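Agenda item 2: flavin-adenine dinucleotide complex prediction
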Amino acid sequence: MKIKDILNEKTPTISFEIFPPNARMSLNQVMAAAATMAVQKPDFMSVTYGAAGGTKENTVKIASSLQDYLGIPSIAHLTCVATEKERVKEIALEMKAAGIENVLALRGDIQDGIPYPAPDKYAHAAELVAEIRQLGDFCIGGACYPEGHPEAGSREQDILYLKEKVDAGCDFLTTQMFFDNDLFRDYMYCIREKGINVPVLAGIMPVTNAAQLRRIYSLSQAHMPKKFERLVEKFGDKPEAMMQAGIAYAVDQIIDLIASGVSGIHIYTMNKPQVAAKIMENLRDVIK
Ligand code: FAD
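Presented output:
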């Protein structure tokens, strides 16, 4: 099922992101985690794609298994920073052949040692979006950044480029994680003012350990509100307390976003079914 149709029928949607196998998790473990999460009946699940392209096979396999065996609509991420245009097109067609109707079209982070930009690669995600639009009947998502993308000169400039990406054919957007809902609300105002009218799903990362937080900060430089900093300072070295406090913070953020009328909540689950389950338990009556 296409995500744009799900969004037409229901808001807010609740969706989960999972990542493919890595050094710490085998394919069987990822599939087992996905199956446990599927019990929560999210509206859809997304499967990430390594920027260097190495996860292709597993991204496609997991996204199609979610639909075929677990009955959960899925979206496969696709990056183009490390792969030539012709190959990216082939991969999108492979996704289509595997029954995947939804693609999150991304550039991917620039990789050390991999030439970029390059004449045989898409320069920005907007070009990939336009290409996928030509390839057939996909529902296409794009990424957006409430605090501005780290490479952008300014958030204003980033929003102008975002408008080009949406005009190239995005059906919806999903945000980078953020911890301050006021920033998100301000961003929504700014993008709507620039004529970006597609649904925007808020990306929420439940932070359940201090190491995860350090990694997030190095990747996204997300603004940490004082309330959040205090929580990490107090509970960062107490795993069980941090887990409980991190989930409570995410739930609080989600309820406030739903009260503000958000189109959807996309939970970065980090492949942890127990975190997804706890959040859903806390939202049960809110999303009825
Ligand atoms: P773009 O939209 O191309 O933007 C990248 C930068 O280029 C921005 O600074 C933008 O302002 C600028 N720009 C855009 N157009 C132009 C133009 N015409 N001229 C000059 N500058 C321009 N990464 C992965 O590797 N795998 C994943 O699965 C993955 N999933 C993600 C999911 C979400 C929801 C999000 C928010 C991010 C995800 N990422 C993933 C990270 C993403 O790939 C990086 O943030 C990457 O650096 C930017 O990708 P993009 O698609 O937003 O790029």
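Discussion summary: Strands lie at 13-18, 44-47, 74-79, 102-106, 139-144, 172-175, 200-204, 264-268.
Owner for follow-up: CH.
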